UniProtKB/TrEMBL annotation:
SUPFAM superfamilies: GntR ligand-binding domain-like, Winged helix' DNA-binding domain. InterPro entries: GntR_C, TF_FadR/GntR_C, Tscrpt_reg_HTH_GntR, WH-like_DNA-bd_sf, WH_DNA-bd_sf. This is FadR family transcriptional regulator. Gene3D superfamilies: GntR ligand-binding domain-like (1.20.120.530), Winged helix-like DNA-binding domain superfamily/Winged helix DNA-binding domain (1.10.10.10).
Length: 228
């Protein structure tokens, strides 16, 4: 029986090699070459290719082998693809794309949440923001991060737009960036204040205020990551 850890490690290695360009688009692979390159069994190589094909990173072709697909074909919203890109030399481009996506989506989601959130969701948002303040002030980054992810999940869910909700996973992936990827080890007090401004506007039913506050928050993120 194949160890799940081995399977995951090989999949990560393959995915990383593709998104980094070490295995460039147009390259043709075989199961035999993968077995040799990654020192794995044929079964592991086949299963990894099946998953990568589902992500549109590769395409199996009868008689010619397994072809690496161009970036334009990839499922760029999948958390694994995002993580591999963040771990690659293309990290800056991935952060830029995700932050621009967030700027286009989350301010409108906050606007809608201020109009559509239930009383329970407003209470949950207030609690998540309170947790961010408490764990930020006491330098507990893990707990702070969990509260931050929950904050943005509530905003997207309360928008009542199922397409916005579907974007939570890619947004969560970048929110969970480690300090080595550019996220500060401890939250900046001003950042917590920006979240509190969003929360207050949503809870007050102020759509324009919520949209403006979220735009300010994300513009600060973009500036902090030097993506402007």
């Amino acid at each position: 029986m194949v160890s799940p850890t081995l399977h995951s490690a090989v999949l990560d290695a393959l995915g990383s090699d593709i998104v980094s360009g070490d295995l460039p688009a147009g390259s043709v692979l075989t199961l035999e070459s993968l077995q040799e390159r990654y020192s794995v069994s044929r079964g592991v190589a086949r299963e990894c290719m099946r998953i990568l094909e589902s992500l549109h990173l590769v395409r199996s072709q009868r008689r010619t082998g397994i072809r690496i697909e161009p970036e334009s074909a990839w499922n760029v919203y999948d958390r694994r693809v995002i993580r591999w890109r963040l771990d690659s030399k293309h990290r800056g481009a991935q952060l830029r794309s995700l932050t621009e996506l967030r700027l286009g989506i989350e301010p409108i989601a906050a606007h809608l949440a201020s109009l559509r959130a239930t009383d329970e969701e407003r209470a949950e948002l207030r609690a998540a923001t309170g947790d961010m303040r408490r764990f930020g002030d006491t330098h507990r980054p893990g707990r702070y991060l969990s509260a931050d992810v929950e904050f943005h999940r509530i905003i997207l869910t309360a928008s009542r737009n199922e397409m916005y909700v579907a974007l939570f996973e890619p947004i969560a992936e970048v929110l969970q960036e480690s300090p080595s990827h550019g996220r500060p080890e401890y939250p900046v007090p001003e950042t917590i204040g920006y979240h509190e401004a969003v929360m207050e506007a949503v809870c007050a039913g102020d759509p324009d205020g919520a949209e403006k506050a979220m735009t300010t928050l994300l513009s600060d993120v973009r500036a902090a990551l030097k993506l402007v």
